[in-house]
Amino acid sequence: MAAHGQNAGYWFVAPAILLMVLILIAPVFIAAGLSFTDYSLGNPGFDWVGTKNYAHMIGRSTYKKMLWATFIYVIVVVPVSIALGLGAAMLINSVNRFGNIYKTIYFLPVMAALLAMAIVWEFALHPTLGIVNKTLTDGCGTWVEGFFSWQWIPWSDEQPSWYERGCIRNFPLWFGDKTYTLWTVSFIGIWQAFGFNMVLYLAGLTSVPRELYHAASMDGATKAWDRFRLVTWPMLGPTTVFVVTITTIRSFQVFDTVEAITQGGPSKSTFVMMFAIYEKAIQHNLMGMGSAITVVFLAFVLILTLLQRYFVERKVHYS
Amino acid sequence: MSKIQLQQISKQFGETQVLKAVNLDIDDGEFLTLVGPSGCGKSTLLRIIAGLEMQTSGNVLIGDSLMNTVRASNRDLAMVFQSYALYPHLTVRQNMATPLLLRDLTLWQRLPLLGRLASGHSSAMALINSLVDDTAATLKINHLLDRKPGQLSGGQRQRAALGRAMVRQPVAFLMDEPLSNLDAALRVHMRAELAELHQKLKTTFVYVTHDQAEALTMSDRMAVMMDGHILQLGPPAEVYGNPLDRRVAEFVGSPKINLFSAEVDSAGRVMSAGVPFRRRLSVLKNTAGLSVGLRPEHLQISTCAVEGESWPLRIVYKENLGSDFFLHGTINGSSDRVVVRAAPSMVSEISIGDDVFVQAEEGAAMAFGQDLRRLAFAEGQ
User: Fold this and answer.
1) Is A224 on the interface with B (CB under 8 A)?
2) Where are the domains of chain B?
3) Best label site of A27, A222, B98, B326, fewest CB within 10 Å?
4) Digits of tens for pLDDT over chain A (319 positions)?
């Protein structure tokens, strides 16, 4: 009886643990296991290939490009969308009227499915039909070109500017030129993410005690920058940690834009990890390779989460 | 030198008028308390002095210069907030250094890391640190300097907030109910400490509270505010002993003053519940809703009646404060409570339900007219 009594607790948690293992933990380990094989869906068996899949990732240029594209995307989208989100939140927080209208407008990209919006962007940035390049072309030969030639700035060099070169030849193929595509995709990522960050920051701002601002102005904080440094930014610490984590994970997961517009190209310049997993595992039916990328992807996210826990969280919760 | 003058200050929040043409002169080095029930506009007035709130009309002058358009940060005032408003991410030392850093260091010197390279940074920091240490020593919080506000008790936070206000040696301290978040024992202790601090610093203190006891114990002068007006301004003894308004009389003093409804005859003789007072009103105006106020310590208890001078009182409650007893009772079965202070030796034989007699101390009664203003008694009989 005594032994039963002691073990009863395990029986009670067993269903929850079992479900957790089956649904959350097992798939990760299965993927990790598959990453050491050459398994394809439908094949009766598979061979262990050791670390060959991982070696590809380091050795082959495709996967180097994949890591590079993902890295650049995250490095660009996270800080810019957070800065814009914070800026927009502080501006909206400071206005007395129309705040709700701004909130709704900025939140629109978040609500709209990125896949659908990607089509709109693809159309807008079409090299000849798109509104962007059409507008740029219309500016050629007018004062706009004169302005963007930068010749009116003293000591500027005689080289034709970016705009002039666009007028002479043509304006960029936003999704077809590998020098631009990743940046264009990043731009769409920022456009989509900053509204979400803004909403999170707006929530964070409402919890900043007004008395702290009053204390800051009594203490001599005349400049907006001083108030921001002394009150707003530290008090938003917990929000920022959350926003950084969420935005980073979501940026690592970018897929819709790439799938809808670029398919990873041109020449793998937008071959981000999620798309690589999809292409390898689903389209090419190389489950082993797909699993290996998945494991690397999970490792990145895990490392980020741990870093955030150990370095940042300790500094932002004050009580 | 640094008198604070308020001229015709009015403040409106939408339709509600919070302050109605308030005039107030605060002398240099004075401990002035703004006291009143919540919603009377005292905190708003303080924040207008501070510059955190803009008055709808009227002038704020500090040391003869007009401050209406001067920002809070440039008025050279320090404020202690009810919630202390310490920066939670900074240690007590950093909190206390903040006002000095913001005022004495340039923007360039305040930059993180890079600021250390700026010229004059280390000498400025040394000066700031020594000022912080001195202030901390005055407040006996040296051992707390490296802690964060979250690790401090209420009383310690209170001191840290005081320290942040003191470190800069401002023209005046503004305090917005600084003791109301402390427990009762600490509040009484801090009362004495603040009064001592004021003695030592000799700086102007403007202190807002809803607790009349704080106002009575600490201030040089107190201003009793109600409904956006200052009803009475004067030293605590005067406000307590000679209230000019029935609302002041009721607000100041604990337990509350006893008010009796009274009648007056054509000769000006005042009578309440069948007992005449010995004095006569000098002016017979506004006497319709006359009331007479008597503080609990101005009533005397006796077991035998004095004809024409004492009211019968039925004891309903005995309140023991150790040094004193407060007897609550009713006169002639009316529902109004009368509170009488009595020494413990007198009360031992009186129990709840007993009938005793009370008598007013001569010359202590105060008459208030229908407009709540004080009515003067004529000199002599």
Assistant:
1) no
2) 4-246, 255-375
3) A27
4) 455 567 888 889 999 999 999 998 998 888 888 888 887 777 777 778 778 888 887 888 888 888 888 889 999 999 999 999 999 899 888 887 888 888 888 888 778 777 778 788 888 888 777 788 778 877 777 777 777 777 777 776 667 777 777 777 777 777 777 778 888 888 888 988 888 899 999 999 988 888 899 999 888 888 888 888 889 998 998 888 889 888 988 888 888 888 888 887 787 788 888 888 888 888 888 888 888 888 888 888 888 888 887 777 676 666 5
- Of B73, B90, B150, which has the smallest distance from its Cβ to A217's Cβ? B73
Q: Is the pTM for the entire model greater than 0.90?
A: no
Residues contacting residue A221 through CB under 8 Å, at least 6 positions apart: A227, A230, A231, B73, B102
Contact B73 A219 (CB under 8 A): yes
Interface membership of A207 toward B (CB under 8 Å)? no
CATH architecture of the region A61-127+172-316: Orthogonal Bundle (1.10)
Taking contacts as CB-CB distances below 8 angstroms, the residues of chain A near B90 are: 234
Smallest CA–CA distance, residue A146 to chain B, in Å, is: 38
Q: Do B79 and A218 touch (CB under 8 A)?
A: yes
Q: Is the reported ipTM for this assembly greater than 0.85?
A: no
With contacts defined as CB-CB under 8 Å, which chain A residues touch B78? 218
Pick among 3.30.559.10, 3.40.920.10, 3.60.20.30, 2.40.50.140: CATH of B255-375 = 2.40.50.140
**In terms of C-beta density within 10 A (0-12 exposed, 13-18 middle, 19 or more buried), how is residue B333 classed?**
exposed
> Which two three-digit tokens encode residue B290?
């006359």
* Chain B interface, best mutation among A218, A229, A232, by max B CB count within 10 A: A218
Cα distances (angstroms) measured from residue B12 to each of A179, B48, B70, B100, B119: 60, 12, 20, 34, 48
